[in-house]
Design brief:
- By secondary structure, the chain is of the alpha/beta class.
- The chain contains 10 helices and 11 strands.
- It has 2 domains: about 5-160, Toll/interleukin-1 receptor homology (TIR) domain (Rossmann fold, 3-Layer(aba) Sandwich); about 210-320, Arc Repressor Mutant, subunit A.
- A 5-stranded parallel β-sheet has the order 2-1-3-4-5, with helices on both faces. It has a 3-stranded antiparallel β-sheet with strand order 6-10-11.
- Helix 1 (about 15-30) crosses helix 5 and helix 2 runs parallel beside helix 3.
- The longest helix is centred in the middle third of the chain and has 27 residues, at about 170-195.
- The chain is globular, with a radius of gyration of 23 Å.
Length: about 325
Amino acid sequence: MEKRYQVFVSSTYADLKDERQKVIQALMQLDCIPSGMELFPAMDEEQFAFIKRVIDDCDYYLLIIGGRYGSLSENGVSYTEQEYDYAISKGMKVLALIHGSPDTIALGKSERDPSSMAKLEAFRKKVSTGRLVKFWKDAHELPAIVALSLPQTIKTYPAIGWIRADRAANEDVLSELNTARRQIEELKSQVNENSKEFSPVVGDIAGLQEDFVLKGTYWHGQRTHVWQVQMSWRDIFITIGPYLMQTPAADAAKTYLTREAFRRFNFPGSRIYMDDQVFQTVALQLKALGLVKIDVRSHENGSSIAFWSSTPAGEKLTLEGRLIRSTSAE
């Protein structure tokens, strides 16, 4: 049965943007599902609790170490190291990619504080002890390292993985489905009778040019505030359309939309969240407009996760809205 493995990509953020992007692209080419918190560069304890839940759903842990130790938590340990420690405590297989020549890293991407430098060196030694690591010097080396190392890790240490819900059927599931079908047939007459008494009517749904208010909360000035932005359904979809090419999980799609909507709010802040009921309305509306396909996949541990992708109509609208037109005269 075809499986896709979910890989958590852990690293510091600002200094390793290019490296993360190349690793994520390599993972997608390997038909893996990349996960990571690059969308939350400003880390806090609440977000770290969410990260641990994401790691729980992953099959492998990929760590990239460059020239920075990273933001510190309240206990003085970087969030990157805490992610690593948590993955190790869960017994996950780790693929560590460590910069082989830290002295050559640009000053702007290196630690300057002696304390942080010492913690980084200790972290490098901890990761390198008792496991095979891969060393790199340039971001362009990373895709090849991942392409060679991860399949071998998967072969040697097979994990649970993810499968599509419609491919997860076995004899027990089929038996349950047949039982359910019989029950459905028995209830059809009752449903038909009930529908005569109660027939909900759905009016015309809002079109692409009509507006909707996105809202949520953010942190600024030592307290929580409410933000809201009015956008057309066309703008909402075009905002996240390009990201749907990567078939993101629903949480990632929500993060993409939250981040871009808050930019329009044009006010400084952190810990930015979108009201979940608002996001669920967005999901249903875009699905009803025929722009988004939501595919629920089951994990063998019993959990499930929804992935977003564009329909053909959605891809066409994304291209129409995001491509740069020529300004030269014909």
